[in-house]
Specification:
2 copies of one chain form a homodimer. With about 475 residues, chain A is α+β, with helices and mostly antiparallel strands. In chain A, about 35% of the residues lie in helices and about 25% in strands. The first copy, chain A, has 3 domains: about 10-265, BirA Bifunctional Protein, domain 2; about 275-375, Rossmann fold (3-Layer(aba) Sandwich); about 395-460, C-terminal domain of ProRS (Translation Initiation Factor IF3, 2-Layer Sandwich). In chain A, the strands form 5 sheets. An 11-stranded mixed β-sheet of chain A has the order 3-7-8-14-11-10-9-22-23-21-20. Chains A and B meet through strand 2, helix 2, strand 3, strand 4 and strand 5 of A and strand 2, helix 2, strand 3, strand 4 and strand 5 of B.
Chain lengths: ~475, ~475
């Protein structure tokens, strides 16, 4: 029987990734696991959803090359400062080439050829690809890797305010995405020292992992004119001038999958929201010699009735019924249907959802409303567990000693002086994550927990 | 008005790629164009179809890393010989890393950890990704690039015969894919000197481009035990021995899109089969002040009636109706619907398909059967044009002089001696492409066109 203790989260996470066949970490290049069939199908479901949300908001999907010329890469000063230490480098016969660590420097020399006038704005593109960082820190599958699977969006606007408005829209698109995963998160404005290299401001989505550490799962950056100036990218403005446009970029990586797995999973394995599970129902037939045909016919009938609502699998492997239940629980499949002689005779089926809610249903009762209700019940339970866990992970710190063994996020004042943060970081390995994006332009006042001078309410936590 | 002469195919191809916004070749790294929104949407439609065909045949989608350790890359001798001259190289702190030129050497050290027994066979995986070749030859967008977008499948079988049987199934899957693109092709067994490095035999799909040159658009390789031996990959056989399994690999790249564009397109631009066009109908309203509201209401009504059959766009840009027609013809959209006052008054619509077949339809006549028939009519016309062109491009060569200015494929005997082929290659820039896969095990006899000794019927042509 599968019983993976989630108290030791790090061990739990590695075991679940292995047993549920999400990734294989034995690939011989450090920090580059292989996405196995079950893991890749799940990853793809997540990114299909994200792409659809972006496409529905009139972002156009593109694909830019992996390799970036050294000269293009080096144009934005802060950007090169932020990334140059950790890029992979290659070359052709002519020159040094950078393997993209993110695509601003690949895209923007071309965007300036595509976007010439305010009449084309807002201009919105996105791409799903892998980006590469020659990390020297320790790696962890789906969380800190050297090959990062992600979707990155890039937009162009006429003014700082236009871009700022769309920044909020982008945050809302990401909220819809993470809400669909049924996970909890907080949206924070990062402190200046933790901005994206080249950004005016950075807003990030933080989730709290079961070990109390904070995982950044999405970012939305306002780049202002920093990149358009670096690439000499000008457009015709609505008042007939040539000026540098304002840009945004935002991204979500495979960490979204790490968060989904970690936040929902339990000692039996994965728990997948009904929208993202490849298989919705598994039928486990109890086959005995004398009733085999009867039961199989009934299973096929049930399959036909259920498969209009989602994919149905009949598990015919030569394993015990118990083993099959454990297997599909491990895989996180929403509903398991066990069918034996009794069910056939009473024209019933017994359905267990992944959180062990049991339904006894007459065959005639199966209809759209019932299945929708069952899905909703399971998803709401998954969501409410996540919300409960998340709430329990947010507290207020009154004095610096409260940072000792901090698990989750703590609210505390900060004077915005890096020295005060550094003190906490060195003493408790806790850092400022940012302040609530809901108070973007009127930060809540709170005196600094270190120096007691005037400050604002910030969220603090231990990062991944 | 768009009028791109297809007689100069090379110029036509570049102009269509630019005007229809398929790729942007101005990206500053040679041989790596940018996929623009319209081009990427088309590429994605093609690969979604291919992935679906593979998934339906129980291939499981995975994703292996981009970078391959130098030691793993070097294990299969012929393979390294075939690729080592043209790979991009990078490194981390520890060692040299290869940017994948294809994924055998990334996958097979891991496959041997996944596949242990005959009971897991046939084992079938595939992935869509980009592969990289540091080409020194001249590049051409979608045809010969240094970043190749493709899908590669890899399978494992117990015996040579099992693998050979699945090889034929893989060829059939690819036939279904290319048939859905409505293009014509021939399936050839490549001569030994043109096999995939490390393969026992290679079967390839060749299309004939409008300039008479031959484009390889897909390959299916039987690897025998060459790689399993190189990676010491053994399985438990059905007769309880440990033995090296037999493997296949097969792939289709963005050249499929190049073929679709080149074979179907005309002097007005792209022609896209109805299955792969993002937009199925474009409505072009003729808006005059006094009837504007009337016409717009009617357009919305038509949109509602048509959009159950595919995506409908109403083109409201401030351009002349003529310009709009040219634009959507250039983009290859299957059906254009022009609506003005006359149509509203007569409760009609006039539909033109991309090959200028004109339909005058009463609103009440729109139904599933009619639209299906219209799609079929257009697709059949596209297909029959392709078949006609392809047939006209296949001839028989009786004497070597027939290779002078060869356009398309010529059938001629070959003794299978490389010297005879080299003679033709040097004199006429024509090479042996292979023999018909339908005669795999009983090649048709034909005396060598060069030395007149005993030989077999081969197809010859000028390659890209």
């Amino acid at each position: 029987m599968v019983n993976i203790d989630k108290k030791d989260f790090s061990k739990w996470f590695n075991e679940v990734l292995e047993l549920a066949e999400i990734v294989d970490i034995r690939y011989p290049v450090k920090g580059m696991p292989v996405y196995m069939p079950y893991g890749f199908a799940l990853l793809k479901k997540l990114f299909d959803k994200l792409e659809k949300l972006l496409n529905d908001n009139k972002h156009h999907q593109v694909l830019f090359p992996l390799l970036i010329g050294d000269e293009e890469f080096k144009k934005e000063e802060q950007h090169i400062h932020g990334f140059s230490q950790e890029v992979f480098i290659t070359a052709d016969n002519e020159r040094k080439l950078i393997i993209r660590p993110t695509s601003e420097t690949a895209m923007y020399p071309i965007l300036k050829l595509w976007v010439k006038s305010h009449s084309q704005l807002p201009f919105k593109i996105h791409q799903t690809c892998c980006v590469y960082r020659n990390e020297t820190k320790s790696t962890r599958p789906l969380i800190r890797g050297r090959e990062v699977y992600w979707n990155e969006a890039h937009t162009v606007h006429e003014t700082f305010e236009d871009a700022k408005l769309h920044h909020k829209i982008a945050v809302d698109i990401y909220k819809r995405f993470f809400d669909s995963l049924l996970i909890s998160y907080i949206v924070l404005v990062r402190p200046d020292h933790d901005k994206f290299p080249g950004a005016v401001y950075t807003v990030a989505f933080d989730a709290v992992m079961p070990d109390g550490k904070i995982l950044q799962i999405g970012t939305v950056h306002h780049l202002g004119q920093n990149f358009s100036k670096a690439y000499d990218f000008k457009i015709l403005t609505s008042d007939n001038r040539m000026d540098y446009p304002h840009q945004l970029c935002y991204g979500i990586s495979m960490r979204a999958l790490a968060a989904l797995i970690s936040i929902h999973g339990d000692e039996k394995g994965l728990i997948i929201p009904t929208e993202f599970s490849d298989t919705l129902f598994v039928i486990i037939p109890i086959l005995k010699n004398e009733t085999k045909e009867l039961v199989m016919n009934y299973c096929e009938k049930v399959r036909k009735l259920l498969e209009v609502y989602g994919k149905v699998e009949i598990d015919l492997r030569e394993k015990s019924s118990g083993e099959k239940h454990y297997y599909w629980e491990l895989k996180g499949v929403p509903f398991r249907v066990e069918i034996g002689k009794n069910e056939v005779e009473s024209n019933k089926l017994v359905v267990k959802d992944r959180l062990n809610h049991k339904y006894s249903i007459l065959l005639d009762e199966i209809n759209y409303e019932l299945i929708a209700k069952m899905k909703e019940t399971l998803d709401q339970k998954i969501k409410s567990n996540a919300v409960k866990n998340f709430s329990s992970m947010i507290k207020s710190a009154k004095k610096v000693e409260d940072f000792e063994d901090l698990s989750g996020l703590a609210k505390a004042g900060w004077c915005e002086n890096e020295k005060c943060e550094q003190f906490i970081r060195e003493k408790y390995h806790v850092e400022v994550r940012g302040y609530d994006f809901n108070y973007f332009e009127n930060k809540k006042l709170a005196n600094c927990i270190v120096c007691n001078s005037k400050g604002y309410e910030y969220y603090w936590g231990k990062p991944y």
